[in-house]
General transcription factor IIH subunit 3
Amino acid sequence: MSGEKTSEKIEKEKNLLIVVLDVNPLQRIVKEEAKILTQCLDSTIVFANAHLMQASNNQLAVMACHGHGATFLYPSDKTNDIRQIDGQYEKFTEVERTVRQQIQLFVNQIPLDASLNGESLISGALSMALCYISRISQDKEGDEKFYSRILVITASNDSTMQYMNYMNIFFTAQKMGVILDVCSLDQELTLLQQGCDITGGNYLKVPQLNGLLQYLLWVFLPDSSVRSKLVLPPPVEVDYRAACFCHQELVDIGYVCSVCLSIFCKFSPICTTCHTVFKMPGPIPMKMKKKKKNIDITH
């Protein structure tokens, strides 16, 4: 009887995973070794199929982004006639073929005459992902439970230029109950660490790229209900400082505009964002939170 109840409970649950893969050719590790991008794509496809394999009603979406845009790779509007190959499940074949074809088209769309942008539009991809989750959640039936999470795989730098976009996305995801996970392939990403902490997701800086698939399956494949039962290493400190709007740098003490809440590292009688003119003493100085505990699973 307990087995029947468990299976019935699983059937009433729908888990959506959206994977955002950064394919910016200006990422440091990609410029040093181009095959890294292929390795990341292979690991991402295996990880995505593993999610589908966990339950028959699990749903998947795969996105890609670079410095000029973001797009959905899977599901795609173009339907292909998929036939079983070497006994492989047709769904897995469909995911692999569609993702590889669409990502090739997406990368080839980068304009050759335009200046290359080193900052990937991850915030744009996350916004599109939240819109997709909102639309899918409206299709759930009656008492069916809907869970969703987003995984970002990137080797780009931390972009303070997108600070306000990130903050809006993080708190929107928190309100929607969407978990944000981040897998960094190159360096620590302060802003995305904040997003993981706010939404209750996991953040991991991969120690070795050769073991990327193992890290994805170990850290990011389990859903939130299973993660709570895992024994995780001690938490690390998350830098909660805000980025100033003038130099795009993290500041310990900043001046906050009382009208638009823009943050500046130095006093200015005029807000450069909303152009409000202040009477002395000007914008309100505010001390930023620097440290906060968060779950770390990098060791």
Notes: Residues 14-224 form a domain with the Rossmann fold fold (CATH 3.40.50.410).
